[in-house]
Design brief:
- This protein has eleven helices and 13 strands.
- By secondary structure, it is α/β, with parallel strands linked by helices.
- It folds into two domains: 3-123 and 304-314, ATPase, nucleotide binding domain (Nucleotidyltransferase, domain 5); 132-299, Nucleotidyltransferase, domain 5, CATH 3.30.420.40.
- Helix 3 crosses helix 11 and helix 7 (220-228) packs across helix 8.
- 46% of the residues are buried.
- It binds zinc ion.
- Zinc ion (ZN) binds at residues 164, 174, 176, 178, 181, 183.
Length: 315
Amino acid sequence: MITIGVDIGGTSMKAALTEPGGTVYAKTRRPTLADREQEATIGQLHDCIEELQELANAESLTVDGIGIGVPGAIDIASGTVFHPPNLPAWKEVPLTDIMRDRWEREVRIDNDANCAALGEAHFGAGREYDNFIGLTLGTGVGSGIIIGNRIYHGERGFAGEFGHITIDFNGPPCNCGNHGCVEAYVGIGYMMRAAIPLLRNASASPLHERARQNPESLSPEDLSHAAAEGDDVSADILRTAGDRLGVAIASTANLLDMTTFIIGGGISGAGDVLFDGIRASASSRALKVHRDRLVILPAALGNDAGMLGAAALLV
Ligand SMILES: [Zn+2]
């Protein structure tokens, strides 16, 4: 089966012509134009697909269908996207119908974090595991629950909101309206806002001056580089983030009897300090039956996971 997968991100959309589980024939990308009207973004989507369709024609490949990953809540049954936060002009968009009318073939859409997890299942770190939870650590904390190599959607398609698991009922406010969600600690914005006062007070840290003069320029990767150079404050911040993720991972393992977690997205690039923190926390908190079975791995596909997973929606 040959499919086209598209991942609509906040700044750019990426698309691939693939055989899920096998070959990636070609990739392309376009600006999302998220600050413009809905039709502008959908026009970019059509352009990506057209480019890959022409390549498929040139190679005599038949495209069986199109899969699209979209940030935000999606009604899987109707193929409708609801108020994606990174596409402010979109309200309720019947994206599956729009794409089917234009391309006259099978179209599936899903949440971007679900697609990233499915991409890892077909092409990446999840290939050897039939069941796992894929986490995407970025501005938000998304996840996809993969059971039997397929996305578990819940009753209406909204399952997998790992980022909004509460880890402290008196914790800081989260964008969702709750307090103490995982995302309110390890979403990039929340995490860096908490890190900056610590770095400003740490005169020995290599990030001290930047935290004072230009705090917006600091990223989790900077923390990871500083930690690797021996900065204890940066290492502590990452270890604490890992500790907090481990709390929710242990609860998830206990709830679902799923013990494999594949972690991607910006913060996951922080490497060993973060992963050691996650593993230590999760295994100290999970029920004894799960402790020795926990597998917590970095994702393998980087930014390509979403589009490759979108292509695999049709399998
Ligand atoms: Zn929340």
